[in-house]
């Protein structure tokens, strides 16, 4: 099963809500190598949140199959491969990431495979996410949005159903501040 | 006041006292007010209080400061609920 995960960061909120300069903040979340890369970066703030969203997206990918929750950001080690591509390694497992950002937000997608299958993804307002997913699913499946029902797994991962049939193979929803984002693949 | 509260953390705190302090610490990060009103031992930070995972580390640092303890990575890994956090705080304070 090829799971996917995504994470959105509202950069304006990140600037005010948490301080990466706070004592212990980097040490708790990042490996020594990541911290060195953050300090050497031209924009340490952006690097912090890029790494963070890569870790979160990979975690969301991973917990869809293990069905267990935990908070161990340091165990997900990030490497930057190119301006948008990255790699997160957790217990010898690899997660391939793509990140996109502008002045307002940063969005990362993580996949368990290097193959880029058909993925559905968008950034919007947190409140409208479920509606947007249903609309998109309905269009892809040729059914009505109101016939689609959202359910959750025990770890809180979202699943979308049409009556007894599960529509999404893997699905991840993320919100932070003024932004929300979704990513899903079809069965 | 400061001296007194510092002294108090070195004595044994009851579970209820720890939860009370924890309630004050998590308040700034809570997104679900209904969940916060009903905060109990069974409350989950993410599912019930809708605290953003990006703020979990802030809570962990706040807990370290407030209870004057050091939280290692293995303990941090479990700190997603009030119950688990209370256990970690008790362990570290009694260590």
Question: What do you see in this structure?
Answer:
The complex is a heterodimer of chains A (187) and B (95). By secondary structure, chain A is of the alpha+beta class. Helices cover 30% and strands 36% of the residues of chain A. Chain A has helices at residues 11-17, 25-29, 32-40, 44-66, 129-141, and strands spanning 4-10, 77-80, 85-90, 93-101, 105-111, 120-124, 148-152, 158-162, 165-166, 168-176, 179-186. In chain A, the strands form 3 sheets. Chain A has a 5-stranded antiparallel β-sheet. In chain A, strands 6-11-10 form a 3-stranded antiparallel β-sheet, sandwiched between helices. In chain A, strands 7-8-9 form a 3-stranded antiparallel β-sheet, with helices on one face. In chain A, α3 runs antiparallel to α4 (44-66). The longest helix of chain B is centred in the middle third of the chain and has 15 residues, at 53-67. By secondary structure, chain B is an all-alpha fold. Chain B has helices at 2-10, 15-26, 33-37, 53-67, 73-76, 82-94. The model of chain B has no long low-confidence stretch (mean pLDDT 90). In chain B, α2 packs across α4 and α2 (15-26) crosses α6 (82-94). The chains are: A alpha+beta (187), B mainly alpha (95). Chain A binds chain B through residues 9, 14, 17-18, 22-25, 28-29, 52, 56, 69-75, 156, 176, and chain B through 46-47, 52-58, 60-61, 64, 73, 76-80.
């Amino acid at each position: 099963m090829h799971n996917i995960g995504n994470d959105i960061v509202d950069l304006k909120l990140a600037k005010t809500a948490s301080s990466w300069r706070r004592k212990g903040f980097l040490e708790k979340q990042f490996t020594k190598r990541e911290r060195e890369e953050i300090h050497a970066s031209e924009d340490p703030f952006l690097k912090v949140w890029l790494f963070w969203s890569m870790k979160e997206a990979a975690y969301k990918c991973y917990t869809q199959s293990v069905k267990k929750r935990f908070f161990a950001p340091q165990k997900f080690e990030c490497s930057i491969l190119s301006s948008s591509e990255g790699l997160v390694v957790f217990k010898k497992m690899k997660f391939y990431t793509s990140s996109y950002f502008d002045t307002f937000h940063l969005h990362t997608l993580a996949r368990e495979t290097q193959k880029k299958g058909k993925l559905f993804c968008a950034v919007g307002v947190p409140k409208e996410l479920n509606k947007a997913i249903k609309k998109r699913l309905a269009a892809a499946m040729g059914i009505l949005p109101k016939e689609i029902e959202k359910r959750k797994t025990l770890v809180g991962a979202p699943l979308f159903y049409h009556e007894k049939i599960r529509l999404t193979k893997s699905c991840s929803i993320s919100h932070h501040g003024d932004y929300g984002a979704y990513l899903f693949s079809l069965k | 006041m400061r001296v007194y509260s510092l002294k108090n953390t070195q004595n044994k705190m009851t579970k209820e006292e720890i939860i009370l302090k924890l309630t004050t610490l998590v308040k700034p990060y809570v997104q679900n007010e209904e969940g916060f009103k009903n905060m109990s031992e069974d409350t989950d930070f993410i599912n019930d209080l809708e605290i953003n995972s990006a703020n979990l580390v802030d809570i962990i640092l706040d807990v370290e400061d407030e209870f004057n303890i050091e939280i290692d990575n293995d303990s941090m890994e479990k700190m997603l609920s009030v119950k688990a956090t209370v256990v970690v705080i008790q362990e570290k304070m009694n260590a």
